[in-house]
Amino acid sequence: QQSNVTSYGAMALAIITLEVFVGMWINAFIVCVLCIAWVKKKALNSNEKILLLLGCSRISYLCFAWVYHFLSKIFPNFLHVQTILQLLALFGTSFNYSNLWVSACLCGFYCIKIANFRNSFFIYLKVKIDRMVPWLLLGSEILALAMIIVTYVLNETLQRNNITFTCQENFWEVTIRKDKHLFSSHFLAGLVFAASFTVVIFSAVFLLFSLWRHQRTMQTSSMKDLNMDAHIRAMKSVLSFLVMYSINFVCLILTILYSMKKENIMTLLIYIYLYAFPGVHSLVLIFSNPKLEKALLKIPSCVK
What we know:
By secondary structure, this protein is an all-alpha fold. The protein has helices spanning about 1-40, 45-75, 80-115, 120-165, 170-220, 225-255, 265-285, 290-304. The protein is built from eight helices and no strands.
C-alpha cells in the first residue's frame, strides 16, 4: 500500500509540474500583453489593472507553491530547515490569498460595470468603480499581508509551545493548545476562502437577475440592445467562474480537513485540481477578453 501511495505521489508530482508550467505560461502571456499595452497607451483601464495584478499573483503563487511541493516530495528533510519552510509557506500562502481576493474583485467589477439597477447605492458604485479599483487592489494586498502576519504569529506560538514541551505530564495540555492554534489558523484560511467565494456568488446572482430584467424589457419594447450582448458575455464569464470557484472552494476546504492526515489518493487529486485552477481560470479570462483573445490568435501566424 505504501508503494502504491509513493507511485501515485510521483505521478501526481509529474502532473502538477506540467500544470504549473502551463499555468505560468498562460499567466505570463496575460502579463506580457497587458504590459505591452501599458507601454503603448501609457495607461490601463480598470479591468486591465485587475487582470495584470491577478496574473502576477498567480505566477508568484504557482512558483512558490510548486517549489514547496517539489521539495516536500523529493527532499523532505530539506524542509526541516525552519527558515526555508517558513519563507516558502509564507510567500505561497500570501500570493494564494492575493489570487483569491483579486479574482473576487474581478467578478465584482464585472457585476457593477454591466448590471443595471436603479438603486442609488449601486448607481454610486457604478460611477465611482474606476476610481475605487486601485484602492480595492491595494486593500486586497494589505489584507493578504495582514492574514499572513497573523498566521505567522500563530505558527510561531505553536512551535514555541512544542519546543518548551519537556514533561510527559503536560502532554494533554500541550496537545489541546496545539489544536487551538491549528484551529485558529485553519479558521482564518477558511474565512478567506468563504469571503472570496461569497463575492463570486453575489456577483453571479446580481448579473443573472439584471440579465433577466433586461431581457424582459427588450421583449416588451421589441428592440435589440447592445447591452444584452454585454450581459450575456459577462454572464458566461461569471458563471464559468462560479463553477470553477465552487469546485475550488470545496477543494480548499478539503485541504484543511485533510491537512492533519497522511498523504492519500484524495489529497493528491485535490492538489492536482488546485494547481490546475490558476491556469484554467486564466485561460477562460483570455477568451472572455477581446484584446487578449486577439493577441492569442496572433501567435500561430507569428510562429509560421
